[in-house]
Amino acid sequence: MTIFSSANLKRLFTILVITAVVALMTGTPGSSSAPPTTGVHGSFLERVSWFGFFAAPRWTVFLTLGVIVWLLVSLYRPRARAIRQGLDHVMAAPRGLTAKRPARLTLMAIALVIVIFLPKFVHESFWMYLIVEQIGVWILLALGLNVVVGFAGLLDLGFAAFYAIGAYTTAWFTGALPVPALFHHHIPTLWVIPIGIVAAMIFGVLLGTPTLRLRGDYLAIVTLGFALIIDDFVEIQNGVTGGGVGTSAIPHPALNLGFYHFDWGLSPTPYYYLCLLFIIVFIVVFTSLEHSRIGRAWVAIREDEVAAESVGINPLKYKLMAFAVGAASGGFGGVMSAGLVGIINPSFFVYSVSVNVLVLVIFGGMGSIWGVAIGAIIIQTATSYLDNYQPWGYQFNDLYMYIGALLIIMMIFRPAGLLPSRRRAREFAAAEGGEEIHTDEVLTGDQP
Amino acid sequence: MGFEHFWLSGFDQIHAAFWTYLVVGLQNGAVYAMIAVGYTLVYGVLGLINFAHGEVFMCGGFAGVFLTRGILGSRVGSGWGSVGLILAGIVIGGLVSALVATGVERVAYRPLRRRNAPKLAFLISAIGASYFLQTIAGKEFGYGVNLFPGEVFEPGKVMFTLFGTSVHTIAVVSIIAAVVMLVVADRIVRATRLGRGIRAVSQDAETSSLMGVNIDRTISITFILGGVLAGAAGFLYSLQSGIVQNAGTEIGIYAFTAAVLGGIGNLRGAALGGLFIGLFGSFSVPFAFEGNVQWTEIYTFLILVLVLIVRPTGILGEKSGRTA
User: Is A448 inside any structural domain?
Assistant: First the structure.
């Protein structure tokens, strides 16, 4: 087989296109302030046109790299199968490690010890804040969305809306909004948690009841529209929500039991433990939910709605349940972050927030609680690093580009995620092999 | 301000400026209709909403803006010159969008289709594609609004006066272009061999492949057709309002609403739905509280939810007859 076979040349073309896209992605931004009449000067077109193209050494570098990659791929083509198998083996290692119960428990104990003593090793409060705000709260959000997307298989693009509802409920009840709090009585931030959860849940049920009967893609677009509208609404209702400026007067959480008083104040460490506590609670609750009657009903609906209905599962009821649980955790995340940061404004709840949470779920593995938690840690660490250090000419908004690319790549190469839930991985494999899924594992025990 | 007063003043405004609202509504409706056709066609062949379609539209807008900027520079386009520019903009916008749509199909859809992946995977990769396109457009062209050389470009001028309302050349051009392109698209789908392939795949992909229809090719062509229309719409839209990197999300939802309203999978329905949503958006402007135009978005969204609850198959019914 010659290196210039048509399949190989086709591959060269693909690789060159990919390298060109990567060169564009990592390159300097185009001119954003070109006045309306300057034409292509300074714009993207000038840079990729014939002269701009070869004037920039980076293009030459990237395309050369592309050719090198192509050569390597072509040379190693005969061994591709072996390489892929090796890779699969490596990726399957974590599962092998956690297959036995004692091993799993040991790992969990080690993880717990590490997270408990982490604040001892992180001395800068900047990093501590980052860990709490960017990782802790987002793990909570991702775990919540995982119930909707991972367990029930519903695509919810409006997660930011519930996050906003939780946050603004907090602001309202603690008296931080321009409108007076309910009954003119301010409630401490911690006590708003149940109120925020219930408020988000109510909105979830209101939105879900009409739309959950519909196909999955309709649900996605309706939730997306809902999120856009909540965002709009918050922004235009100056008198109620503080408009675009938002509010910055949300009190920090404090616990007052009469004999014992604790104020979370400004130091990040107490928040860290508060967050950790809630993450553990979330993991325990959602794990037991997954293995409960409700969890099995979700699996059944996700895999075959008609079959599930025929054995007496009411799909609407269980979908609504998943949606409400997801909304509630979004609301909870909102309360948490409002209490933590003390400031809220509409820019915290834009569409990109929903997609960012979605990415955490997809990357870690839909339906896999540990996968989602670990995926959230990895992605949020990477994004915090990029945003704070801005390496290699990285621009602030570039993050979303990588997130979009990551979503596509995950769906093409590893749809079940980094640490897939066993069931989910099998579903993807079965759907792709065109087989039925064997339901022996799921439907043992009491029938829903 | 009492509610009754608010309501009545809305009607007063419509009474006073009926023709203005009508023209704006028709112009927006033309744009929505052209985008909605893309949603509907892709829905027909794949049974999926193409979440990246809004971004296909956005790319056409950018291509058009930069083409005209490149050609015009600081000169003044006028007379037949601007007619030529508009045609060139439509063609370039359409071509670039068709290219982007093909790219989206190749990268985000085809590998998954080959593996027979579940629906959720398609939706997620399409969202990834839309997100990617939005950000790369923002990176390359800036996150602000990219405008046409407005004051020097003749479409911004008044063409004629209709019952005291000045009608801009842009409005006339948009409406004519939409009508022509929609009729052509309708003919292609209904009366050509290509269209027969598209309709066959919509009805039953597997059987049509047994009958000798090349499914991959048909799906590509469907994306291209939708892309051309969306790109032309993008150019026409940006003539009026300029183009911004996240324009695709909002306009995409409007157009999607139009497609659902007309009955998704149904080309004529999409056109009709687009027209309705355009007019509805325009005539609901006087009913926006405190003059906040965002309220029209909220009203349109309510229409979407209402249609989905009351009649999810739309006005004209779903063409391909898929329900699950």
Answer: no
User: For B125, which of A222, A366, A407 is closest by C-beta distance?
Assistant: A407
Task: Tell which of A91, A118, A133 closes a domain.
Answer: A91
- Are the beta carbons of B97 and A411 closer than 8 angstroms? no
Q: How far apart are CA A376 and CA A33, in angstroms?
A: 36
Domain count, chain B: 1
Considering the entire predicted model, what is its pTM?
A: 0.83
Option in B69, B301, B308 nearest A210 (CB): B308
Do A74 and A12 share a structural domain? Answer: yes
* Cβ pair A432, B115 in contact under 8 A: yes
Domain hosting A24: range is 6-29+39-91
The owner of tokens 């719409």 is B233
Residues A185 and A85 in one domain: no
Among the listed residues B56, B23, B40, B29, the one whose alpha carbon sits nearest the alpha carbon of residue B234: B56
Q: Is residue A68 situated within a structural domain?
A: yes
Residue range(s) defining the domain that contains residue B210: 33-248
Whether residue B213 lies inside any domain: the answer is yes
Q: Tell me the H-state helices in A259-365.
A: 268-290, 293-303, 305-310, 315-341, 351-364
Chain A hits for B139, CB-CB cut-off 8 Å, are: 25, 29-30, 395, 397-398, 401
Q: Is A76 exposed, middle or buried (0-12, 13-18, 19+ CB in 10 A)?
A: exposed
The verdict on residue B69 lying in a domain is yes
Q: What is the ipTM of this complex?
A: 0.84
Task: Residue B203: name the closest of B90, B319, B94 by CA.
Answer: B319
Q: State which residue of chain B sits closest to A400, comparing Cα positions.
A: B135
> For residue range B78-123, what is the model confidence (pLDDT) as tens digits?
666 677 778 888 898 899 999 999 999 988 888 888 887 788 888 8
